[in-house]
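This part of the workshop introduces the protein records we will be handling. A record pairs a protein's sequence with a compact description of its fold. Backbone structure tokens are a discrete shorthand for how the chain folds in space. The question running through the whole workshop is how a given chain folds. The record below serves as our worked example for the rest of this section.
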Amino acid sequence: MNLQNDASARQPARPDPASAPPLWWIIAKQELIDLWIGGRVLILLILFSILMSTAAVLQNTESQISAIPAAEMVYLTLLGSVSFGVLISLILGADSISGERERATFEALLLTPASRRQIVLGKFIAALSPWPAALILSIPYMAAVARGDAVFGQAVVIGTLLGTVLAAAFTGFGMLVSIWSKSNKKSLLACLLIYVILLIPTQFPGGAHKGDLGYFIQQLNPLQATSAFIEKLLVNNRTLAEQSGYLVATLLSAAVILVVLFAYAAPRMRLDGGVPRPFWKGARRAAASVLVAATASFLTPAPAPAQDWIPGQALEIGIDLTYKTVNAGDEVKFTTTVVNTGTRPSAPLNVAMNIIKTQIGDPVDPEDWSPERTQALDPLAPGESVEQSWTVEAILEGDYLVYLTVVPTPDGPEATSLPVSSPGLHLTVMPFTSSNPAGVLPVAIGVPVALILLALLSRRSRRWRRGNDAAGAGVAR
């Protein structure tokens, strides 16, 4: 009895299957080691940091000449971070499956106990991993160009949320192409071509006027929709509710791509690649439905907006500041007073700001100058007055006239009214002369140098481990 007890005590305990890590995590861990310890991602991030450093220095230099506001510089920095981070994840996703086929390791991967969906999930996590690193690297650059502006915190939050959704969508798209491609070259070429086609519209000037069709096409492109959404929130001071339509394409594309990837493509992943034929039938049917719905929405006439105005309002609007000279980038605060000089209560009112340039030059976009261009007022009793506070940020040098207009709200489709304008605020903006190169250069130089040192340290660590393994093998012999 004692001998049996001693023998059972000496037997190693069997591992508990329930305590073992899931197979998808084992695959993801191995992929992460190959990408990060192997140095592939570090090289791409070093290139990314060099591009960001160059852009930050150029933006800081340009701000001395053109007085670029901090919000626009932060927006450009964030847009570069999102574009490059998405590109890295797209490339890794495009190489994830087709690359295994060409390296003749895909068959061995399929023979493991992991299911096809677990394989895809592990590789998806690894391909998505460079995006958080790219976002973290961009934070010092955004902080440097923000120069203490509150837009920095908004940019970090918006960039984290939208960038993650966009990176997940492009990673999933790259893996779909990789699953269905029979060669790695075709997978990478197709993904890069689609990326360039979607990226080019984001580089066009955004000041041109567009119709409903133009805005619809803009919102269909996830990259362009995300770029426009971030710009309107950070630079133009629009609200989230006003620009929520730009989020539809980004969120919908991510949801559709991930559902197709994990619910349809992953379980049907084949050793030789290729797209299952039933998918093409369903894709053609879905594309036809979307085309019919889009065409019907544009052919259906929109209801005519009601032109409701109340005539004969006895209103006056004054301003407490008539002229001021400031430097580019300074804020100007002033107050307006709306008075009802009539004998009956007014209707609800809207007060709108406008800015014009008194010299020959480009027209002024008030959205870039003020976070609030319109304010609403409740009905005013006879003789009642209300004050309103306004803020204008002087962006470009020159002479400008700022004026406010009060307009009654509508009372009927055939009514009209006479808007009343305030005296103009003559704003003289002097050239921007101060800069902050000392705040940009340490970040522009320090981040790439730190990444290069990290890559060298990683390479030296790999050599040291290989030397120890070789020495251990020699001793064993």
